[in-house]
Design a protein that fits this description.
Length: 259
Amino acid sequence: MTAIDPTIAAVLQASHLNEETKRVYAKNLSMIHAAAGYHPVLLVLTKHPQKVIEYITRKYSEVASQKILLVSIMAVYRLLDLKTKARSSYALYLDYFDEMDAILRERSKTNLPSKRQAEGFVTHAELQQVRRGLPAGSNERLLLNFYGGCIPPVRNDLHSAFIHRLTCKDGKAQDAVMNSITTNCILLPYDNKEGVLILREFKTQDKANPKLYNRRLGAELSNELRLSLQQRPRDFLFREAGEASHTHMVAFSNLLLAL
């Protein structure tokens, strides 16, 4: 088995990054590592920046995707204190990043969708028609119920939502559970009461002053979730066959794109 590249290992061990960010950065750097014939990532990034940029533009036609890879690269320069030590290569990445960022900023001013967004656009009415036509209890229907039907969408923050089934009818017991949890979860009573979505870990969370996000699921979504759990008993909100849970946001995103 090939040893992990030291630069990728350093990213995965960075204490200031959350686990999902580490995985995204490591995935992007691993793609560059493979494309460069598995030469050391640090050497590739610092000595061949133009080739790296050419690879990014060949691999992704969408500006936003190119920018995401550049963010991963520039994170390495910050983490390993290379902004000064490898000034010339960093300047190339920074110039290219600024160019991509300017394009995206201009696009946001006009509010024009990208080609990919335009091709995939679905109206809210069409989404509801599709949602209601899906089999009750199916993963697809549950997904659309959470992300476009029953509650306002919360992006990808449900990928690792653990489901706590409540047996006690005492409201104080539910409050105790809410105060003790440390990850994203759903509190779902066994009876017909509404469930509660609780998020502690999400992309925009303020690490210095963490916030708790909670929202009632409503009767319809709570019952849809109960039906789904009856058909496929599990501990997490979404999962693929053979997997314990959607703890990896990329896998969860793939489920969203498969609809």
